[in-house]
Design a protein that fits this description.
By secondary structure, this protein is mainly beta. The chain is built from two helices and 13 strands; from the N terminus they run ααβββββββββββββ. A hairpin with a 2-residue loop joins strand 5 and strand 6.
Length: 256
């Protein structure tokens, strides 16, 4: 057991030493061409100026054919400029089931969607992070305020939580010995520099996008096994195995 604790502590120390010096990249300077040439992953931002207020969170259905909320609703007034969350290419700008939608492709199967937005772009247009896409319209179903931007994220056919693009969202916990997908040590991600405003509670599942974030802290150790949390995630592992963070982001200030 002591050996497991030492190993978990070593992982934390190594993570802090390697990741802490990393500096954030200027969002406006990232373009699709520059990203491809440099080999760096694109950097994402909010699709609205400032730090918008989420009024409805990502709430995917348990089965693809069931009802759910496949994105995040951000409060904003009608007429607000909607911006590209990351560099990419406009794949679609038109009506879907009577609603005006814009879709941006970011490579590797990732696509962000924005609705209801009156588009100022056309399919095929390249965009940088923060580039204006159009203006927000009123009338999004279920919006509790004057206007809401429904911001979505997909990887191929899978719907994901768009807040994960910003380093915001829940985490999964796995033993340091176990990565059921690759068989290697898991990618560790930690608390981002900024925090998301309060969002109405509900079940949520964030994807493992694999992007490393600047580390401001690390917590490793033993936890008792639980049957599950409110989100349906298991927060501990049997046998008292040391845990590390994998997939999504943990807010250390909110961790028990």
């Amino acid at each position: 057991m002591r050996q497991q604790v030492r190993r978990a502590t070593a992982w934390c120390a190594a993570l802090l030493a390697v990741a802490a010096p990393a500096a954030p990249v200027t969002l406006g300077a990232v373009t699709p061409a520059a990203t491809a040439a440099s080999g760096h992953r694109p950097v994402f931002r909010w699709p609205l100026d400032g730090t918008p207020r989420p009024v409805r969170r990502f709430d995917p259905p348990p089965q693809p054919w069931l009802a759910g909320h496949r994105g995040v609703d951000l409060a904003a007034g009608p007429g607000t400029t909607v911006r590209a969350a990351g560099p990419g290419t406009v794949l679609f700008a038109g009506l879907v089931a009577g609603r005006p939608v814009i879709t941006i492709g970011h490579g590797a199967g990732l696509r962000t969607t924005y609705e209801p937005v009156r588009p100022d772009v056309r399919p095929g247009d390249p965009v940088s992070a923060g580039a204006p896409l159009g203006v927000l319209l009123a009338g999004h179903p279920g919006c509790p305020v004057a206007g809401c931007l429904h911001w979505g994220l997909r990887r191929d056919a899978e719907y994901l939580d768009p807040l994960a693009l910003l380093g915001l969202g829940p985490v999964r916990l796995l033993p340091v010995d176990a990565d059921p997908v690759t068989g290697s040590y898991p990618t560790i991600v930690a608390r981002p520099a900024s925090r998301v405003p309060s969002v109405p509670a509900g079940p949520s599942a964030a994807p493992a996008l694999g992007d490393r974030l600047r580390v401001t802290g690390c917590r490793c150790g033993h936890r008792r096994a639980r049957t599950g949390s409110a989100s349906g995630e298991q927060r501990g592992q049997p046998g008292g195995q040391p845990l590390v963070l994998v997939g999504g982001v943990v807010d250390l200030a909110a961790e028990p």
